[in-house]
Amino acid sequence: MHMARLPSYGEAISGGHWLDLVAPYVAVCDYARACRVSCVFYNQFAPRLWNDPLQTFRLLGLLPHQVRAATRQLVTSLDFRGFVSGCSALIDYQGFSKTLQLFRIRFPAIRCIVLDGLVDYNPAELLRPRNVADFCPDGSVPLPLVLSLGHCSLPLPNNFFLEGYWRQLVYLDVSDIPGSLHGLTSNASIHIVLPNLRILKVRGREMKDESLMSVLHSFGDCLWSVDLSRNSLTDAAVRLLASRFLSRPTVQTDAYFATEGKISVIKDAEGKVVRSNSFGDFIYISESSWSSAFSHPERHLADSPAYDPNAQWRLGGHECLRVDNVEDAKTSMAGGVGKPIPDWNDVQATENGRGPGVLTHLHLGGNANFTVKGVSQLFRQANGHLRHFDCEAPSIFTSVKTQTRLSGALGCSHLFRPVMASNLQSLRIHHSLVTQAPTVRDPSMSAMECVLFAETVLRERAEIAFPIAFIPDLNPRLQSLTLTCLPRISTGPLIDRLIRFLQLAAEQEKAIQSTVDTNSRRSPTMLRGLRHIRLEFGATPSDNETNGLEDLDTGALLRLSKDDFSFFGEGGWDLERNHVRADADDRRAKRIAERSGSPISIKIESDDASQTKQPVRLAHYPLPATVDVDGTHEHVRATVQWEDKAVGVYVWVGTGILGVDHAVNAYMSNLANHSLQTDIGPATPDQTAAGVPSGVCVFNAAWDAILFTEVKKDPLGRAPSQELRDVVQAIRQFRIGTRAAYAARRRIRGSSDEGGNLAKVPLVQDHWSGNLEILLGG
């Protein structure tokens, strides 16, 4: 742990007491008896027993009626979560609101106050006066470091944080509290009142973009973690958040071009970087021969140590995750049940107390108007500083007027690569990042029909438009991944992709371990790889939703006829209407080949009939304003707005001749609609993989429209259906099978000296030994 001062010579050479080694292994239920052995035992175990008394009492089932003053001085945490009965008896006072008045007097060493979930109290009671001289501004006297007031039923007074009692706060949670944030934003010198604040959580406060501007302006660069979940933020908030990043030097680098690729820019005829108000700098990823396949032999090596302490370097990639939750804050600043109390002088030097001077942890989940475009713009402007990002279900903007609402993270995989998100260690995002199936909400369809429609029609369209799904080796520096909004029911493709992802995680783990086993002790440090996967599922379908599913022809979703399926209100992709008709068999073709360390294949096979046809040129080609660029006539000249100036840029539109790349065909077809010739930006790796040349600009509105569909309200036909499977059960069965084979392998390895034949059990290739967590919703 970091120390506020260097140890003295005596402290450095003196050995610790043997109880320091034994105490962590003593059961909590034995602490009370250990305290009675001697003063030495008491000094060791009493702080562990009393630093978080409410949680200890709940754990042991105790209900003390009297506590000595000397014992109360050992209390550093009061965590009321799950503990209501007995709290008044603990301090011998009637009424919880009156109890709050005594915190400062009865518990002078209190560091953490956690009142989450308690509603029947008035937070103003915490402001009862006390001698102001007791609140030393230099931090020499212990004061609260953690304050969590989530779900309080009464608003906080506007002068709540102006008192010196809260001056040392490092962690503040004021989520789901009625009233405005006037107390935090009205005072321009709030960063002086709370100079040590590093973690701020303001979930569910109906915060809008204007309020966010006030919060960020008030605290400056003090915060390294901000939780803005379940508010009313839009993509306009990105410009405000980017101001927290752009003021710091970038940690993105092209030193690892061979492994990761590098960031390049599009320039105009004068050699200036092209920019627009909606996109920012026109940057794209230049690939090496290895980076596009995520298969470089050195992709699992951590970065070399930085020898210039004043330079801005990215993380090495092997560091432990920095956590910003209340549990970690309590443990690091006040200990916990069965843990020693950190020295007060060293608390500010802990990971939570020290600030990196830049925002690294950002939570944006639950903001309904925050879209995939906002996520993309945020990561392009973050300069690689983000370490944890949470946006569970960003909306997908549709250029088509439709009642269907989509959410997901399609086309975002490149944003989380090390070349873009250099310090990213933890990610919580929509499951479509891996499965390529968005979430659909349509009032004309049942919940089950929305799930099946997303998994069939939309998933296959997404595989055409955005063929690169996220895999572990796309960013081996990522240690934790949470996939949200997963459905409980699947016809198979979603299950296959989740299982394949676990298999790829196992392959990554084996590759790292194999390198470690073959290296010497002086070999480079290895990355940890993906060690934690959390799958968050939606509510279990009700009986009413699942009734009759055995008669529903789920395959009909893949065979929608021209009358059942419409694109922009028209009847499918029709060449006669300048649209491309894609056969169902072609749409079902796999875009990503099963691989084991090999490059991802994005080629779409065409049938023999299509190869023998004469080239077909779309009727609306050549487009107006087509210009000759590099000897071709595949570009048009357009303008983008940067500040108050119009900037000219060349946009790739193709030849207009239909080819084997269905995504490019659909893109060229969509350009017949002039309203889709908007949202100009550089081609992403997904678009390049689908057939667009690298380093050009495209009309993203026309490209994204490949996904947007409308389903007429005609009922689906009924026929023998594909089997509907429980996703959770399928994953559990897969894990049970791989774990059993893995355990058998280990047993034979252990008994090999007794004649065991290692070849009897096949090598297990798909068991991942990391932490897989499943959370069921609803």
From TrEMBL:
Listed InterPro entries: LRR_dom_sf
Protein name per Swiss-Prot or TrEMBL: Leucine rich repeat domain containing protein
Species this protein is from: Grosmannia clavigera (strain kw1407 / UAMH 11150) (Blue stain fungus)
Lineage of the organism: Eukaryota, Fungi, Dikarya, Ascomycota, Pezizomycotina
